[in-house]
Amino acid sequence: MEEENKTITVHMETLDLHPQCSHGPTLLFSRGTDGKKFYSCAAYRDKKKCPFFLWEDQSGEKYVQQFERDPIISKMLRYKLQSRYELVKGLKPEDRMYCDKCNQLFPKIEKVNHLDHEEMLRDNIDDYNLSHPSQLLRPIQETKGESQYFFTDTTIDAFISIFKSLGITSLICLGAPTVHEKIVCEVSEINSTLLDIDHRHIQFYECNRFRWFNMFNCHVLEECDTEIVLEDLLSQTESMALLLDPPFGGRLEPIAYTLKKFDEIRKKNNKNILSKFLILPYFMERHVINCLPEMTMLDYKVDYVNHKKFNDSGRNKGSPIRLFTNVNQAKVALPVEENYKFCEECDRWVCSENFHCYQCGGCMSKNGRKYIHCNLCKKCVKKTWKHCKGCRKCCLPDHRCTNSIIKRSSVNSNAKKGQKKQKKN
Q1: Exposed end of the chain (fewer CB within 10 Å): N or C?
Q2: What is the DSSP string of 155-167?
Q3: Does residue 327 sit in helix, strand or coil?
C-alpha cells in the first residue's frame, strides 16, 4: 500500500468532468515515472467490484459505454425495500428472516424463494437487530475496498460524550454505522445521518437517516441530485459535526476534496464551519496534515471489536488508531475513566502514559508509550530507540546503520583501488 501511494498520483482538479462508472465520477490517476494518466473507480481498486479503467486519451463516450453499470438505487426501489422492512417489523421475531446473499429482509413464509442458497439464511431476527443493522449485516472483509470494522461500546460512548460536550445537535456519520445506530436509538438530542458506500442500509432507514454515498468523489449514488441532497443535509443547523471513518487503504486527497465541498456548501448557506473528526492511524499524521492542514491529532485510542490489532488487547501499547480534528483540543474532553488527563501546559487532553517534556514544549508520545528526550537529537523519541552515531539520530538498536554501510563500502572500494595500483606497479 505504501509503495502504491508513492508511485501513484491522484488528480482532483477536474473531477466534475471525469467519466462516470456506477459509483459516480471516476478518479484520474497517473502512475510511475512516465506519468501516463488513467481513469479508475473512486470507490474500488478491486476490478471484480468495479472493472472501470480508461486511459485519459480514450475517455470518449464509445469507450465509457463498454462498462456494464450496476443498477442504481431508485426512489421506487428504496420505497419497496422500506415497505418490506415495515412489513417484516410487524411480524414476530420467529417469523422474520434475512438472506445474506440477496441482502434482504423477508417474511418466513417466503423462504421457498431462497432454498437454492439456504445456507445463507438467518431466522429469529429480533427488534434489536432491526434497529442495529450492523449487528445483522455480515461484515464486508476485503483487502481492497470497504472492509468493515466496528467500534467497541466504550469508544462509541466516548465519541458521543465528545459531541455532547461540544453542543453538537446534528451529526453526519460518514462510514461509521455503529455510532449512527447508537445515536438514533438512544441519543434524542443529536440528529444523525449516515452516509455510507454499503447500500444494504437503505432498507433500514428513510432518506433523512441514510444516503448511499461515495466519500471518495462526494457523490450520492442514488437516483437523485447530489448537490440538492448535500445542501439540504449540510444547511440544517449551526452546530453540526462530521465523524469520518474511511478505509485505511483509501487515498486522502479525494477525502480532502469531499470535506472541502462540504465546507463550501456550509459557507454558501451562512453556517458555521463543520466540526470534523477523522479516524486514522497515528503514523499517518504527517500525510493527514499535508492534505488537511487544519487538522490536529488527538491522543485518544480508538478501539475496534472485530480487529485483532486495533484494540486495547491486540497490541502491547494499545490501538494505533487516533482521532484527528479541526476543533480546539482544549475543548475536546477525553474520558478520565479510560485513563486520560488534562495537561495544563499543553492545554489539551492526553493519555495518562504521555508525560510533558519541557524541552520540547509538549506531551510528545504518539504511539501510547512513554517517550524520552534525546539531547543529541533535541527531541523526544520512542523509549526503545537508541542514539546512533553513524546515523546521527535515534533508531532501533538492531537497525542497519546506513552511514556505516556507506563508510565501509567506501573503505573497501579504496582498498581495492590500492590493490590494483600495487599490481600495476
Answers
A1: C
A2: HHHHHHHHHHHTT
A3: coil
- Quick one: average pLDDT of 385-396? 89
Strand, coil or helix: what is 191?
A: strand
Q: In what side-by-side order are the strands of the sheet with 121-123? A: 104-107, 96-99, 121-123
Residues 58 and 161 grouped into a single domain: no
Domain end, chosen from 45, 64, 83, is at 64
Residue 360 lies in a domain: no
Grid cell of 231 as nine digits: 445542501
Rounded-to-10 torsion of CA 242, 248, 253, 254: -70
The pairing of beta strand 170-174 with beta strand 356-357: unpaired
Q: Is the pLDDT of residue 285 over 90?
A: yes
The Cα 213–Cα 196 span in angstroms is 5
Does 137 map to a domain?
no
pLDDT of residue 149: 77
Residue range of the domain that includes 287 = 153-352
Domain boundary among 352, 383, 398: 352
DSSP three-state, residue 256: helix
* 112 part of a folded domain: yes
> Which tens digit of pLDDT belongs to each residue from 363-372?
988 887 888 9
**Residues 36, 101 share a domain:** no
CATH no. for residue 162? Answer: 3.40.50.150
**Tens of pLDDT, residues 372-386:** 999 989 899 988 888
Q: What is the pLDDT of residue 150?
A: 86
> What beta strand segments (E) does 263-347 contain?
275-281, 296-297, 321-325, 340-343
pLDDT digits (tens, 9 = 90+) for 89-125: 999 999 999 999 998 999 999 999 999 998 999 999 9
Q: Quick one: 230 and 298 in the same domain?
A: yes
- pLDDT higher than threshold 60 for residue 62: no
Question: Distances from the Cα of 181 to the Cαs of 84, 125, 132, 350, in angstroms?
Answer: 20, 17, 6, 28
Please list, in sequence order, all residues whose beta carbon lies within 8 angstroms of the beta carbon of residue 4, skipping any fewer than 6 positions away. Answer: none
Check if the beta carbon of residue 298 is closer than 8 Å to that of residue 158.
no
CA 114 vs CA 81, 105, 122, 199: distances in Å: 17, 12, 11, 21
Q: List all residues 6 or more positions away from 41 whose beta carbon is below 8 Å from its beta carbon.
A: 21, 23, 26, 27, 49, 50, 52
